[in-house]
Amino acid sequence: MKYSIVIPTYNNCEKYLKPCVESIFRWTDMSDVELIISANGCVDNSFWYLQSLRNQFDATGFGKHLKIVWSDMPLGYAGANNVAIREATCDKIILLNNDTVLLEQDKNRWLNLLDRPFKFNEKCGISCIIKGPSEPAGRDFAVFFCVMVHRKVFESIGLLNTEYGVGGGEDTEFCIEAEKAGFEVCECLDDKLWTFEQYVGGFPIYHKGEGTMHDPNLVQGWDNIFLRNSLKLAKKYNFDWYRWRLSNYWERAVFLKGDVVYPREVTRYQWANKNLVGKKILEIGCSNGYGTQFFPQDIEYTGVDYDPIIVDVAKEQGWGDNYKFFNADINQFELDQYDTIVAFEVIEHIDNGLEVVERLKKHCKRLLITVPMNEPVGFWGPHHKLHGLNESHFPGFEFNYINEAGEIKETADPITETNTLNLLIAKWSNA
Q1: What CATH number matches the domain at 263-429, 3.40.50.150, 2.40.100.10, 3.40.390.10, 3.40.50.300?
Q2: Pick from 4, 81, 94, 135: most CB atoms within 10 A?
């Protein structure tokens, strides 16, 4: 045998795995390959299909050419591939998605095409149909729906990284690490083209395109998984993109530990520090917790934010053991009694923001807020729910104003080209 074909599968056997395997039978000389199927926590009819497949292989005299690896629990894309790769006996190992179908061709043409770069380039470690750009990584990578990897690459850098879970990012990382180890990632053909749904070109394969990932019956919240994995990848290989993506996705200021904080942000937190009472502090809309560096180190701090990813980033920053972060909707978060509550540019994002203010006042001795003052509709895009906020909306508060330069003023500066927006900065104290 010359090649080991590894196929991970997770349910939807009739839709994905069966057509894939049948196409391999039709367009591949089975004497040249071993087929290793990694059944990845399947709970559909995969078991019975694979049993019949075993019988078919035995009946045709190719029993030794089929290996089935069962996993009781879903292992994710990388994990499912890894358990199968360990069973491979050939030097050239094909990683083939179950949502692919080989097209009409001469026997073994697809294998010969994948093998071609190895014959002309001694540094080739990964042969692929197409290399695609990865913004999070800042470089190209082999798209892993169908690739041939030489065993020496796995022996050099290890198997696929399972930290990416369901999938998305492990293929890019594997290619980067392979190149760092001295191997090259080579396209097997010069002609390549993607349509909206699939790869088309000279390579005889149809790729349905992340069938498992985009099937809501199999994977929930794929977009969120992909974003998390993109951030994980960028954190390793393209930290500037990681920082940019965090800030721009949420359209908020995100300053990682050690970053220089914008003057306006500094101003708000310095003002808050001067006006804190007590040591039990709650911050709503805490982002990744960058504001904590302006507070006393001995406080008991709780940070709440609506987005789970930014909360995870906050927990990773190492602000201190006395800083706790929670992902929650403030309307659903069970409030304790706090000495001071801080909410900077939060109220305008909440439909019932003014009701939230009244609720917060019942749970603290002091409430510190900022909101865009008299903000026109659409000024900051669709994420603001309340507009035109001013002193009249916050009875009982003391007011100051922050201009574009981050200066606190007793009166609001005129709106100009250099000062496009004033922040209303307000303090309420429980008499």
Answers
A1: 3.40.50.150
A2: 81
